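With this grant's support, we have settled on a layout for protein records. An illustrative entry appears below exactly as we store it:
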Amino acid sequence: MLNYSRTCRNPLTVLDIAAAGCSNCTLQTGFRQIFDLTPVVYLPGLQLCLAHYLLLLRPAETPAHSIADHWGVSHLGRFSQLYRTRFGELPSTKCAAPGKPEESSGSALAR
């Protein structure tokens, strides 16, 4: 089984996932049926959602760019733009209140 969080610095490709036990065609079809997205669209969205969750959990003294660095982001400006488009705010302004992360309505991947 693939562990996406262990490979975040080297983003997964469709072929990496297919190598786990199905053909590229089967993978594409399955993603479209389940998520109404292709894997190429889904995987960066997953990366953004995981980065969002880590931003919610980070200690106040941890800068947002360290979360992006953890995920192997090579262009901070592009990451910020995609994050703002998805979540309506810049990653540098996202911080969690003490306690557990905010609850959101629905799947962030579906946005």
Q: What stands out?
A: The helical segments are 14-18, 24-35, 39-57, 64-70, 76-87.
